[in-house]
Amino acid sequence: MNKNEFYKQLMSEYTFDADRIRDNAKRGKSSRQKLSPLYIGMSAAAAACVVTVGTIAAVNMGRHDGVSLTDTGLTTLSANDRLNHALEQLEKERGSTESRDYLVTFAEPMTPAQAQAVLTAEGNIPVKLLYLEDGSRISDTDQIGRIFTDSSDSRITGAAVYCSGSFAVKLQNEPAVFLIEAMEAGDFENAAPVNISDIQTSEVTFPEPSVTEPGGVVTPITSADSDPTEDSDGTVEPTYDTSEMDGTSEPEDTADTEEDEGLPTEEITTPVPEETTVPTVPTEPTTPESTTVPGENAEPDEHVPTLPAGVTLPMDVGSSVYNTYMNADTAFFIGSDIFFTKDDSGISLYRYNGGSEELICSEEISDAKIAWASQNGRRLMVTGTGEFGTRSRTLLVSADSESIIDLGTDEIVMSGALTGFGFSESTSQLTLCFKDEGVYYIYSAKLDGTYLDQFTEVAHSDKKLSLVASSGNVIYYNETSFGESTMYAADISTRNARMVHFFEDAPKVTRNLAFTHAVITNADGSVEIFDPATERLLAVSDDSVSFGASRDSFICSGSSWVISGGAVVSDGSLASMAEVEYRRSGSEKWYAYVSGGTVRITDSDYSAENKASLLTFNGVSDNAPAEIRSALNGAVGVNNAIALGKYSESGIKTPESLVECISVYYSANASQKIMARCGISPVGAMNYTTGGLKAADAGSMFLVISSQNSDTASGMLYIEAGTFAGKQAYRSVSVEFVKENGAWKLNMII
């Protein structure tokens, strides 16, 4: 095939704006760009030689920088061959993350400010060389910096830049850029921006951009009969076992041993995937097709609007993800931006700030285990090994004071070993159960801020003692001997004890972290919850009980319950679930977990928006027709482009094109409302506010149409809100669609 046929075939799959390239070859005008300093990561090799100058990076250039990838130099090619070669090379570089040198030819000479705006429209970029209108060139780093910072009156015709192939492709789509050419080492000596007037456009045939056939995408959803324990991040909650639920179970073994009885034996950490899912690459929403009545002309309505050429709207927005290697086995947020980590040698607090972490404080402690958590998750108590090699130390961790404080409990435990630990948030009473030289002791002291008052002995026995719960000044504990167990209630102030319950077969006891309730698993398999307020044993259906850090709420069999007035009642509030799942709900912005030594931070399910919403936990099936679903997806894409400020990378270059995009997927009524809310002007400079719009994933929305005729449709939009109590939750929004000029459009702002 000849050259023209080759490039016709090449461009049939080409997504660059062919019309713009052809027009620019005829000296088309460039568009003004709004200054928007963004940033893009560079390789270590590039970063080592980069000097930042404003929003531009100037790079020191050696004469022999770079490695020749081809034998063809720019100086040996005609203007037309350079055009053809550049387009061919860019097609090969599409999606490439490998950086190399490129020569940028502007459509017309530009001021430094205009050139800066164009080069930074897609992110920060290293500049090696500037070409000026008078034919001179500048390679000195300082001189390049002064061009952009000292209000120089120079006119720039091109620039040598260092960037990835994918970044070069984005630059090629900038209206003010005529051509992006891959440069070799030898090109730096003599190459210059291509002379646009030498381009013979008749020699290269650019076909019209192909039109993507419309078609809605309906995202499948797991049926209600599927496994309800799948978490929002793809993890599966473990089958609950009361011996591990809150890290406070009492061992069944009654032998006289030095085990850490009644203390955490294993912390429960939600399993996480070893690799995070890469966010979905945004795709262009399809234009809704017009519906026709049988027998009528099937040609599309000429008034149906279409997206401007080159526009790709972000329908899918990946979750914010931050990964950093840290020597940790546990990580979760205990404040809005403060997260806690634990490893074999100690604990730490970090502040998370926009993609990086900052150490606040740390404390060395061996074999650390979380023994108590406040109901709001902002305070923790951690026990660990003390001076005598036994569990005796207690650390107070606070997000409010941003501190880790040693409470000095090793001074009372001494050479003994903690077997039980409890703290009452309502009374600030700390209770220890420890074993020393074959005798069990229970001691209690009031916590005054960060200092403990004098400890008081509550009980001691040569029989096994284990903590159960507390209520006010009363501490409940079990005394076990010869397979039998008796529960006592002891008043701290009087040290008087009385019997509450007798068990012929010693049960297994699992306390909540709040030290207010306990799960009793009897020898016959029956399960009861001990309620200290009424001193009753409340029967529950099975042993899948988790209190977390909650005082009186728990999750059982995937549902949320609360103990009130001595009875167990259903409670589906998100606030109660958050208290139970304290490791996930410490921040309304972020969720942290550890996988393979890497701390990973994603968006929190427990957002303020979710907490304020009425959630449904019913299975949802999307039934929307393809053309209506397509309209919804497109509206989401427009919404995201506005909410995230991604108009430039979406291909929206002017206010006129933004208004055009809005009108494609929103009705006339909704278009006026969204433009008014966001302050969008149809002409002039690109300038608007988000108007409160929030980015969303079209793939996490399920549209259920309940009513539809030829011109209107309505239904309910279900939006994934996260996984709570092992069940997928959805926020619901009523939606309405209308047909205008043969196309379905959203008649409201989501």
Mean pLDDT: 77
Q: Biggest β-sheet, characterized?
A: 7 strands, mixed
Terminus-to-terminus distance: 51 Å
Total number of domains: 3
How would you sum up the global shape? elongated
Count of distinct strands: 40
Number of helices: 15
Look at the helices and sheets and give the structural class: alpha+beta
How much helix is in the residues?
Answer: 10-25%
Rg estimate, integer Å: 33 Å
Unreliable runs: 6-22, 24-72, 201-302
| Quaternary form | single chain
Strand content: 25-35%
Task: Explain how this protein is built.
The protein has 750 residues and is α+β, with helices and mostly antiparallel strands. The chain has three domains: 3-203, no CATH class; 327-514 and 586-596, YVTN repeat-like/Quinoprotein amine dehydrogenase (Methylamine Dehydrogenase, Chain H, 7 Propeller); 615-746, Nuclear Transport Factor 2, Chain: A, CATH 3.10.450.420. The chain is 17% helix and 33% strand. It has 15 helices and 40 strands. Strands 1, 2, 3, 4, 5, 6 and 7 form a seven-stranded mixed beta sheet that branches. Strands 17, 18, 19, 20 and 21 form a five-stranded antiparallel beta sheet that branches. Helix 4 (79-93) crosses helix 7 (165-172) and helix 13 runs antiparallel to helix 14. The chain is elongated, with a radius of gyration of 33 Å. 43% of the residues are buried. The model is unreliable at 6-22, 24-72 and 201-302 (pLDDT under 50).
